[in-house]
Amino acid sequence: MREIYGRRDFAIIGELVEPKTRVLDLGCGEGELLSWLKEHKDVDGRGVELTGGRVQKAIARGVSVYQGDLETAVEDYPDRAFDYVILSQTLQEVRDPLRVLRGMLRVGRRAIVAFPNFGHYSVRLSTLRTGRAPKTKLFPYEWWDSPNIHFFTVQDFEALAQREGWRVERRIFVSGQRQVTHFPNLLAEIAVFLVGAGS
User: Fold this and answer.
1) Neighbours of 14 (CB within 10 A)
2) CB within 8 Å of 123: residues ≥ 6 apart
3) Which of 48, 54, 79, 125 is most exposed by smallest CB count within 10 Å?
4) What angle is formed at CA 172 by the lines to CA 36 and CA 111, rounded to 5 degrees?
């Protein structure tokens, strides 16, 4: 499976985003994905990043990024200001995930959400084997210094989407270098969802 800047989720997102669209990347880091989308898809992209050093590196890449808290950033934009709002590998770190997701679907026609699957068998086995907070290749942190504050699975996200009436347009699951087509809640390390607001 292809990677962009060493990340499979970026490659999947790159395939989902249509050319010449308006994109908002929340928690955009150093702007790698936005830069790639600008160069290869000719998008009109904006980014939000909390860390000043990362914002400077993103701007140096030639992308439009401002320093701010992604949890409140969408409040600054009108409804449907973007075609896609992206949140990659960050949902598990935000204080109020539902507020963020609802905001994404207000300001964007579609949301692309990528997250690590805490239901992966390695996470389950780690907890079962050690009796402690899981520590795996995908989640290398100690419990006390982990940026992750919400531990959710593919099934949890699916249940939330159904409860909120969101339209799940695409589901892509990966483990290592391969795509997962069966039992994603157990076998997928990373999940990527393309979601639209309900009709």
Assistant:
1) 16
2) 117, 134, 136, 138, 139
3) 79
4) 60
Stated length of the chain: 199
Phi, psi of 26 (to 5 degrees): -90, 130
Closest CA to 199 of 164, 175, 173, 174: 164
Residue with tokens 């290869």: 40
Calculate mean pLDDT across residues 32-55.
95
Sort strands 108-116 and 82-88 into parallel, antiparallel or unpaired.
parallel
**Residue pair 80/109 in contact by the 8 Å Cβ criterion:** yes
Other C-beta atoms lying within 10 Å of the C-beta of residue 137: 9
- How far is it, in rounded angstroms, from Cα 116 to Cα 173? 10
Spatial separation of the C-alpha atoms in residues 96 and 76, rounded to whole Å = 17
Token digits for 36? 């790639």
pLDDT band at 169 (very low <50, low <70, confident <90, very high): very high
Amino acid at 195: V
| Cβ proximity of 15 and 41 under 8 Å | no
Q: Does the pLDDT of residue 67 top 60, yes or no?
A: yes
Q: pTM for this one? A: 0.93
Summarize the confidence of residues 25-39 as an average pLDDT.
95
Side chain identity at residue 32, one-letter code: E
CB 181 within 8 A of CB 157: no
Find residue 85's DSSP bridge partners: 24, 111
Measured CA to CA, the distance from residue 130 to residue 159 in angstroms comes to 29
